[in-house]
Amino acid sequence: MPILRLDIDDIKYEVECKEGEEKLLRESEQLLNNKFEQNKQIKNLPQSKKYLMISLILAGEINLLKKQNEREVCDFDKIISELEELENLVEKKING
């Protein structure tokens, strides 16, 4: 299994991963570093609280995306229902 050396918030970590997961871990490393950079007020917290705060920020973003996705699915279902109603009306007109 590959071992990656990650640098997150200026701390070095060695992480073992499955073959093919390297890119995902590098992207996650970059995401975390971006979050630390965007939330500079977190920098002065103890390490455990830093990671708690970043976890809460990421969890909040995930929840917002889930809710947005649910709304889009609901809108999509509504559109499909309206198209089916329209199709039925067209069939009735065609068939007399």
Helix content: 55-70%
Roughly what is the average pLDDT, rounded to an integer?
89
Give the N-terminus to C-terminus distance in angstroms: 68 Å
Order of helices and strands: EEHH
| Biggest pleated sheet | 2 strands, antiparallel
Q: In one word, what is the shape? A: elongated
Question: How many whole angstroms does the radius of gyration measure?
Answer: 23 Å
Please list the strands of the largest sheet in the order they lie side by side. 1-2
Spans with pLDDT under 50 lasting ≥5 residues? none
By secondary-structure content and strand pairing, the structural class works out as: alpha+beta
Number of strands: 2
Structure annotation, total helices: 2
Strand content: 5-15%
